[in-house]
Structure formats: C-alpha cells, structure tokens
C-alpha cells in the first residue's frame, strides 16, 4: 500500500477546468494562484495528482519549486526549468515527447521539435523573448503549455523575479487571445505565504493582477481514513482512535498531515482509550504551533501586538486600522502616543512575517485562522479570570 494519499478526482476536475473551461471558468486562463499554509499537502498534490492529470489530458507541463533552493535567484530557477523543458522537446526519444505523442497523438518526428531559434539560456537578451519561445512551443505542440511555480511568492523577492513574472504575463497575452490559437499558455502559482500570494493578484502593479486567487483544497476525512488504515498495518487496532475522533483531531490541527502524524505518534505512547487522549494531544500541538506565531508578534513590539489584537478581534475582515481613532486605541494599549505614520511600517512587518494578510484596500485579516482562534481563546480566559 502506497504511503502517498492521492486525490485523482480533484486533480481531474481541476485539470478539466483549466484545459476545457466553461463560461464561468474562462478567467483561469489569466492565471490561477492557490494559497495555503505550509505542510498542508500542496506540493504533494501538485507532483502526484495535478501534474499527471494535466499530462494525461495532453498538456505540456513545466514545474519549478522556488523553495527547492532558497539561496538561488528565483528568476534563475524558473529560467532553468523552462530551458530544460525546451531542450527535452528537441531531444529525440525524450520522455516528454513520448508522453505528448501517446496522449495527444501528435507526430513530433523522430528528432523532436525544430524550433526556429537557438538558445543557451532563455534569459539572454540577444535571444528570443520568453513570449516568442513559448509561443513557438504552443504552435508546434498544438496543445496547452502549463507552467506551475511552487512557492511563487519568492519570485517577487527580487527585481529579476518581478521582471520574469512580467515576461510570463507577456507570453500569456501573446498566446491566449489569438482567435485560432492551437493551444493556451496557463500559469499556476502556489504558495504558503498567503498574504503575498493574495497580493500577487490583488495589487494593480503586479504582473498577474486580476487573475484567479483561490484557497488550496484542504485534505478531509478520506485522508484520515487512509492514514488510519496505513497505520493499522503495523499497530494493534485497539491502539488507534475512531475515524470520528481522528477526523476531529485533524481539523483541530489545521488539516496538516505532518502534525497529524506527530499526534498519532504521541498517542501510540499512551495506554488507555485513544479517543480520550487524542483530542488533548491535538489541542496541545495546536496551541504550541500557534504560540510560535504569536511570539513573532511579540518580537515586533507592543504596537505590533496592538494592531494584531485589533485585527484578530474583528468579526470578519478588519478595516480602519490606519485611522486616527485606531491610533488613539493603540495609544491606550501601548501606553504612549501612537502617531498615524507609525502604523504602516508595523503593518508591513506583520505582512512580511505572514501573520496578517491584505484582503483589499485598507482591509486586513489574520493569515492563519487557528492562530486567531488560539489568541481569542487565551484572551477570553484572561478576561474571564
């Protein structure tokens, strides 16, 4: 039994929406950005489910993980991934060509594609633009070309990365609007920094402003059942919790597989009813994870804590956090006068730490709802004591 939980139905549905969009899904051709907290299974889903589903439907897929080398220039990682894929298309007998021929029935010839240009790096200024290169790939392959950038928010950490996103937008705009285009260029970006991923589509100065932004579909009870069956192969049944108790614990842990595995390991060390122990273990682990994020707020200072408190206390998204009334409120909390111009740098720092996220002009929310819940619970205990 494989230890990887696969989601073929979700992947097939997403691939179909991307490659054969209905009227309501046509906006996906402008770009799709999926955000979700770290360790919720995004990369596993991309590699084991979505990419195979896209390829099975006849698409060419280029994948690059910007988290694979955090010291490298993001633009270099993306350039190298595109360059490698284009070289494979020119290589006789490459796995990419075999897959394309098998699923699309396209006769690419024994020698592979013959591009009308030579290149040793997609980024060289004396070579064709990225838009020209990708357009020729689509025209020869006569199918969709899908570029997936994992942890896409790292691309905006440098000028080169921002310029590359603009070049990819130019490729999209050069390929997709053509009335008789034989294929489309589809861009998918995923990221764990929800604040920054959201801004990639919300801010007008971003290359993919207006593209579709959505939350990554979290794992549910079918994953929990799969995990329990997997553990049951080596553990006595009486040591394992019921599916209901395990599912509730998984939800408590923010639907994070690694945290669930940690909880089960701790549970197996206990003697007694697992359905009684597991909720306590899950709650403890959840509080510990939230405490790490709350410590980041404390390290940013008292004004950061006051701003965080205002946003976390709001019902829904918070507004007016830069107002003079808000500054007066912060002053009472901090114990000194807070000037309006002091607020924005602290808000920027909170966003940079992925603690809060911008939802619109002047509208903010806590990035991780579980951190917010823990904070509200702790505040309720203090006020009730």
UniProtKB/TrEMBL annotation:
SUPFAM superfamilies: P-loop containing nucleoside triphosphate hydrolases
Domain ORC1/DEAH AAA+ ATPase: residue ranges: 32-190
Record-given protein name: ATPase
Origin superkingdom: Bacteria
Taxonomy of the source species: Bacteria, Pseudomonadati, Pseudomonadota, Gammaproteobacteria, Pseudomonadales
GO molecular function terms attached to this record: ATP hydrolysis activity
